[in-house]
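Working notes for the structural subgroup meeting. M.R. asked for a predicted model of this chain before we commit to crystallization trials. I am recording the input and output together here so anyone reviewing the notebook later can reproduce the run.

Input as submitted:
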Amino acid sequence: MFETLKQQPADKILALVQKYRDDPSETKVDLGVGVYKDATGLTPVMRAVKKAEHQLWEVQDSKVYTGLAGDPAFADAMIDLVLGGAVPRDTIAAAATPGGTGAVRQAFELIQMARPDARVFVSDPTWPNHLSILAYLGIEMVPYRYFDEETRGVDFDGLMADLKAARKGDVVLLHGCCHNPTGANLNSAQWDEVIALLLETGATPMIDIAYQGFGEGLEEDAAATRKVAAAVPECIIAASCSKNFGIYRERTGLLMVVSADGGARALNQGTLAYLNRQNFSFPPDHGARLVTMILTDDALRADWQAELEEVRLSMLGLREQLAQELQKLAGSDRFSFLAQHRGMFSRLGTTPEMVEKLRVEHGIYMVGDSRMNIAGLNARTVPILANAIIDAGI
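Returned structure, recorded in token form:
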């Protein structure tokens, strides 16, 4: 039977990883994979995570299943972290998922189940897995303009014009903070305009928030998500713990559905549990339990927030260093957008041919659309990248 299978397209980022590994150059720079790296190139286990794991090892006496939606304490802790009381708790259904990707997948399944004819409006560009999962599920995807290739900022006029085509029953997918892959974000006033348009069209917002704490700060990065949730009748939120807790391999995420009233919550909660059952039954618990311990213990939380702030400031410092280095070499401020972007990524705004030239001639590895992981840099490699960008004529 398997002879009917067709070769699926290779994941471009994973293919880039292999090319990087095969490159013998001592000055090669990996800006492809979206993981945080410290100055030594290591993706460290955060201090609070290590402490929580040690505590858990001492007291945990069973690995029995928690529940189809995961441990309710995890949901409560994450809802408080992301929404911070912006909406009443009794209007929020939630289910733990295998990572943020699992939350996104379950959200799309939920949309398809509720509205088989729903269209999902997706920013151009967006995280590639959004498009891949939508295509796999057969959900119609409608792109909306987002990134201005000239300014390397948000094409807000284009965004608003395109979202006017959304209608009740459609879903508008938004990035809560630290837009992936561009690093360009809406400001507070622009979020207000988006909310007004959502209310006008009746479309349902879905927010993917995977980098809370990596942009302007833990509370600041949640502000837009809270503003949206408080303003609209219903919304969907997919949250990831991979980046801000550094527990990538533990696959820890949460899907939240905010409804207009508590009466709808029970139906939504039952549906989320049903979808988990059909997909993977019980969600993984180890990462979720560590997150719960950290968020509900004052000492652990303080240590986690302090280290998360160190990570955020480190990335901001790399952005500023790179922008300054490029300004010095180019004699202009045309790369100043790099210091203005937030999160792990920036989109350089050049062609796939130029990206390939950077790889072949300089050992600089980034995704073909010129998305680069700022957290893949360090003080030593920033000048290498800057010189390569100028030498390539970007």
